[in-house]
Write a structure and sequence with these properties.
- The longest helix has about 50 residues.
- The protein has three domains: about 190 residues, Growth Hormone, Chain: A; about 180 residues, Growth Hormone, Chain: A, CATH 1.20.1250.20; about 60 residues, 2-Layer Sandwich (Alpha-Beta Plaits), CATH 3.30.70.
- By secondary structure, it is mostly helical.
- Strands 1-3-2 form a three-stranded antiparallel beta sheet, with helices on one face.
């Protein structure tokens, strides 16, 4: 990766990070904070926690498509401004209705897809995978840092102070976008990172991709519902209030991450992805039923939370990889856009349904509902096809190419390790699905140059 590309990927990862930090920091402390808001009930608390996912889920794809027309930086600044405005509304509100409105506005600043499109604008095809990995690592790290930092900051400045901090983070993100992120020379549609409206129908008919969309929907529904009741459970069993619960989350997250790394190595290197995937779903389901039957035992509670975050981290690492492997090479960005929308809609449903179940049936029933959802996911996971272990590669085609797109694609499909190939003439790109163990990138490059 060249210096300019590293700067672009690093600065855009920072923009992603400052936004996600704010959103996730309130997860472990919001349920307790809601008790101080007028009109709060378990249901409205869940609605406030999850509603940003509704606006985010519906606006993620439109934001990306609009950025093709009016510019990436313009949309990122607009989105962060909306996010900051929502944070102000949530910070000054003393009622749950005001916080709900603020959270909905926060989600309306749906800039995630735009950031990924700008990463693609600023990197060449050979460096893009590394650049996207940098952004992905930042997202995962931000989540883990936020769960630990949220309780600490809530104890120091209060949850309203965290909302004010989000305003500052939004302004920081705007400054990074305007003054540090390079400006692309021109905008292109990148099928590997962006949603292409004409491909939405075909992707939505792909059963294997829908299984993965259901998986990320379920994962984040369970996460959001859990944070409506886990903080009070930890308080009751460990006598630790929400401001001090970082002492629980930190070792749990470190242990779960330590388990995740070898699990992903086994899944990818030894091609046991389905077994690891199904095992992670089993862990998630088991964690919920452990909390149903053993929520009065502190050791069962701690074991269940550790098991949950272990499964969660494995899924957060493996699901995007599976989407890449499963999607047609020219539809990878569209598949990722639908997947991302499913994630945010899962956050909304987890908050709303989890809050309703908590209000009508009690905290234990929230875990039972999440466990039932995990069992349904297990049925979907067990019946999925074995992953192909193919990765997407892009090869730029020079203007001097003398063969037709169909002929060039046919030649590329004859190369060892190439399972699929499609040439998009208007983009001067060949999209390949390859087995990285046998694919020779230099051979493919030579073939394209000689055509």
């Amino acid at each position: 990766m060249e210096k300019q590309e590293f700067r672009a990927a690093g600065s855009l990862a920072a923009v992603f990070s400052v936004r996600l930090l704010g959103l996730f920091m309130i997860y472990p402390v919001f349920a307790e904070y809601a008790h101080s808001l007028s009109g709060a009930t378990p249901y409205t608390t869940g609605l406030a926690l999850g509603i940003y996912g509704l606006s985010q889920g519906f606006l993620q794809i439109p934001f990306g498509l609009l950025s093709d027309k009016i510019g990436r930086k313009t949309m990122i600044v607009l989105g962060l401004t909306v996010f900051g405005a929502g944070s102000v509304v949530a910070a000054v509100s003393t009622s749950i209705d005001g916080v709900i409105m603020g959270r909905a506005l926060q989600g309306a600043g749906a800039v995630g897809s735009v950031i990924l499109a700008l990463v693609a604008d600023l990197t060449d095809e050979e460096s893009r995978t590394k650049a996207m990995a940098m952004v992905g690592i930042t997202i995962g790290t931000s989540f883990m840092v936020a769960l630990v930092a949220g309780p600490i900051l809530a104890g120091a400045i209060g949850v309203s102070g965290i909302f004010w901090l989000m305003v500052g983070l939004a302004l920081l993100g705007i400054a990074i976008t305007l003054f540090i992120v390079p400006r692309p020379r021109y905008l292109r549609v990148h099928r590997d990172t962006e949603t292409v409206s004409g491909m939405l129908g075909s992707v939505l008919k792909n059963v294997e991709l829908l299984r993965l969309d259901f998986g990320i929907f379920t994962l984040h529904a369970m996460l959001t519902a859990s944070f409506l009741v886990v903080p009070s459970l930890l308080h009751a069993r460990l006598n630790v209030n929400s401001h001090s619960q970082w002492q629980v989350y930190l070792p749990v997250l470190l242990l779960s991450a330590a388990v995740m790394v070898p699990a992903i190595i086994v899944a990818e290197k030894y091609r046991r992805m389905k077994a690891v995937f199904v095992g992670a779903v089993v862990a998630l389901a088991a964690s919920q039923f452990m909390l149903v039957v053993g929520k009065d035992d502190v050791y069962v509670v701690l074991a269940a939370i550790t098991l949950f975050f272990t499964g969660f981290n494995v899924m957060e690492a493996s699901l995007p990889s599976l989407v890449t492997k499963t999607a047609p090479p020219e539809a990878k960005g569209t598949a990722a856009g639908i997947y991302s929308s499913a994630q945010f809609l899962g956050i909304f449903v987890g908050g709303v349904v989890g809050g309703w179940v908590h209000q009508t049936e009690g905290s234990g029933s929230v875990f039972a509902w999440s466990g039932g959802l995990a069992l349904l996911w297990l049925l979907v996971a067990v019946t999925m096809k074995q992953p192909s272990y193919l990765t997407t590669r892009l090869i730029r085609i020079g203007d001097g190419c003398t063969v037709t797109a169909e002929d060039l694609a046919a030649k590329l499909r004859q190369l060892p390790g190439v399972a699929e190939a499609i040439v998009v003439t208007e983009e001067n790109l060949a999209y390949l699905k390859v087995d990285s163990k046998t694919f020779d990138a230099a051979e493919a490059r030579s073939l394209v140059d000689a055509s």
